[in-house]
Amino acid sequence: MLALLLLPFFQLLHGLDISNFVPKVSADTSSCRSCKILVQSFEKGLEKTKNGHFGGGNTAWEEKNLLTYAKSEVRFVEIHDSLCTEISQDQDTCFYLSGEYEHHLKEWWTAGRQEDLFHWFCVDKLKVCCPPKHYGPDCLPCKGYPNVCSSHGTCKGDGTRKGNGSCKCKNGYEGTNCEHCANNYFVKLKNNTFTCEECHKSCKDSCTALGPKGCDECKDGWVYMGEGEGCVDVDECLEQDVCTSQQFCINNDGSYSCLSCDPSCTDCYGDGNDMCFNCAAGYIMKDKKCIDASEGYEVEEKTDEHQMEEL
Questions:
Q1: Residue 144 burial (C-beta neighbours within 10 Å; 0-12, 13-18, 19+)
Q2: For residue range 190-247, what is the model confidence (pLDDT) as tens digits?
């Protein structure tokens, strides 16, 4: 009878893919990150228990005749039991790794903890990480090792079992090892090292120094005014017929903009009804402003009435 009652339950379990409930460890960036988190948690436990000792009983006798607390299984258990409790992200994976690979952690502990835990556990045992400046399944050295990417970029896959070891250069650098300056950057040497500094915005493609004086050639919208000034912005608004009569011109560095006049203007020299050359139909000029014609007449009528009253 009991078997008949439990049969639907076993059928349900059989239909479930319980592998989905178990965090998987594969040789990718996230697995390496999870392993690092576990190692960091273990190292925090080491720090918290570094001044600990056996509790209760004859502690002096225990320290003398048994393993000292620092190397004891008691301390290991205390550390292991508190693993992952202080973290918020990836906690489930951390708990899974701490339980699944407890035997590795204990092996490292009982062997005397001579080797770096991260390298021993994540690199050599689980093989989910590589040492710094190494990448891929075989942990090959990154491009330009040990001066990876000329210190001007990052190695793709650095520290993981992924990537191809090629360089992803910072802005301003290019080349397989980030050893050259990109367009619109120039080389600046200091203490036998080089950096790439960005050219001034007036330079077309290249320069030899900072500022507009360092340009090899000026961009459109700029003009070379000699060594004393270098590339100087052209004020296009000084030219005739740059904008239409219903627009006014605003000069920008290396360019210009045409903006629409106020609706009260037929033509203008700036924004607003106080910058009209002439007023549009339905508007009149009063006190150097184009105002609605009907509003102007109302003002005049009130003024006339006021003057009549005074008389």
A1: buried
A2: 888 899 999 999 999 999 999 999 999 999 999 999 888 999 999 999 988 899 989 9
Cβ count near 275 (within 10 Å) = 16
Instruction: Name the stretches of the chain with pLDDT < 50.
Output: 1-28, 65-66, 301-308, 311
**What pLDDT was estimated at residue 309?**
52
**H or E stretch covering 249:** strand 247-252
The whole-angstrom separation of Cα 185 and Cα 208 is 8
The Cα–Cα gap between 80 and 73 comes to 10
Residues 258 and 239: their CA atoms lie apart, in Å, by: 13
Give the span between the Cα atoms of 180 and 150, in whole angstroms.
10
Map residue 276 onto helix, strand or coil: strand
SS3 140: strand
CA 176 from centroid of its chain's CA atoms: 23
Cα distance between residue 113 and residue 9, in whole Å: 47
The residue type of 226 is G
On whether the pTM is more than 0.70, the answer is: no
Do the Cβ atoms of 137 and 157 come closer than 8 Å? no
Greatest extent of the chain over all pairs of C-alpha atoms, in Å? 122
Environment class of 246 (CB within 10 Å of its CB; exposed 0-12, middle 13-18, buried 19+): middle
What local confidence, expressed as pLDDT, does residue 55 receive?
58
**The two structure tokens encoding residue 90:** 């990836």
| pLDDT of 65 | 46
Q: Would you say 162 and 27 are in contact if contact means Cβ atoms under 8 Å apart?
A: yes
Give dist(CA 53, CA 46) in Å, integer. Answer: 13
Rg of the chain taking only CA atoms, in angstroms: 38
- Partners of 249 in the β-ladder: 258
pLDDT at residue 140, as a whole number: 96
| Buried/exposed code over 8-25 (b: 16+ C-beta within 10 A; e: otherwise) | eeeeeeeeeeeeeeeeeb
